[in-house]
Write a structure and sequence with these properties.
23 strands; 22% helix; 6-stranded antiparallel β-sheet; Jelly Rolls; single chain; 7-stranded antiparallel β-sheet; 343 residues; alpha+beta
């Protein structure tokens, strides 16, 4: 086999970056948009945890994933969990479709039912329990792909202590929301500007933990407020501007009346939609897809998309996106096109 020259090797490396954006446009156009509930439901008959949108399954989502799972009656998500549950350095959204139960998140109980949502603080221990005779059906979305790409994905599970990274370091390490612990705050006065700047770095993790603990966690469906926007009637569900300490995952819910359409827009962040109720169609980059209740839509980055209610009932869509991650990188961009026809 002929060996490449130093020039060829490093020129290829340079061109990989130059060509990436153009190649990515092609990958976005080829990615699967619609995931039908009927197909997912069949798989849930064989296994109670089914990944739907996931880069490991070929999805072109770089920042978050989504799965369905079922918690059988009067059981817990992890049957061997006793006290802690699990935790991870990824943000998580859990939306409950059917059933009732409660979650224990860092020792605090949260009771939930259909239509309620949890925004789980990063690196908090959490457990989820079905309290009834009926199975719980839910979806979850996390920023696992983003954390894995950054090399900062830590998953600690009570069932698998052999894979713990920090929790085995003792009781204090198991209590903190900061991987490795936040250390100590130094309240002494800095002697110079450099010392002041460095002290801010040292204090950052501890302040972050305080903000995470003060963050909102549970959203009750009855408390959602829909208001008119260029995209239609929208309720912000999870967003730092309404009390959540979210850095990557945001959630909005849209409601479209029968026979009406949403606005059209495109954005530089990943979005995964769950159709909560109703049926309709979506146009994504001039391609049409018909969908129904419990179907999932994976919206390609920076592709124009617009929703149409083709049924007789209100169409509700839960949109989970990573706009906040792009905001924090200074790369968030949204373009508004045609406005909705019902506001």
């Amino acid at each position: 086999m002929e060996q490449k020259s130093i020039k060829e090797v490093h020129t290829e490396l340079m061109m990989h970056s130059v060509k990436f954006a153009k190649d990515e446009q092609g990958r976005r156009k080829q990615q699967q948009v619609l995931f039908k509930w009927a197909e997912v439901e069949k798989k849930l008959g064989e296994h109670k945890h089914i990944y739907v949108v996931d880069a490991r399954l070929g999805s072109n989502n770089h920042t978050h994933r989504l799965w369905y799972d079922v918690i059988p009656p009067h059981t817990e998500e992890g049957q061997e969990w006793k006290t802690l549950g699990h935790r991870h350095t990824v943000e998580a959204i859990i939306y409950f479709l059917k059933g009732r139960g409660h979650s224990i998140i860092d020792g605090v109980r949260y009771d939930w039912g259909p239509g309620d949502l949890l925004s789980v603080p990063m690196f908090s221990w959490h457990r989820h329990i079905n309290d009834t005779d009926e199975p719980v059906l839910r979806i979850a979305s996390t920023t696992g792909p983003l954390s894995l790409a950054l090399g900062q994905a830590v998953y600690e599970d009570e069932r698998y202590p052999e894979f713990w990274i920090y929790a085995q370091e003792g009781e204090e390490a198991r209590k903190t929301l900061i991987p490795g612990g936040g250390g100590q705050l130094n309240n002494g006065k800095a002697q110079n500007r450099a010392a002041e700047l460095y002290a801010e770095e040292v204090a950052f993790a501890m302040k972050e933990e305080q903000l995470r603990r003060a963050s909102k966690v549970l959203v009750k469906q009855k408390d959602l407020v829909f208001e008119p926007t260029a995209m239609g009637n929208v309720a912000y569900v999870v967003d730092p501007r309404i009390g959540f300490h979210s850095k990557a995952l945001g959630v909005v819910m849209a409601e479209i009346p029968p026979g009406k359409r949403s606005g059209a827009h495109r954005h530089l962040y990943d979005e995964i939609d769950l159709v909560i109720g109703g049926r309709g169609k979506i146009i994504v980059a001039d391609e049409e897809y018909d969908f129904g209740t419990l179907d999932v839509l994976s919206i390609p980055v920076f592709q124009w998309h617009q929703y149409f209610n083709t049924g007789t009932e209100p169409l509700r869509i839960l949109a989970i996106n990573t706009r906040l991650a792009l905001d924090n990188l200074g790369l968030s961009l949204t373009h508004q096109g045609e406005h909705a026809d019902y506001v």
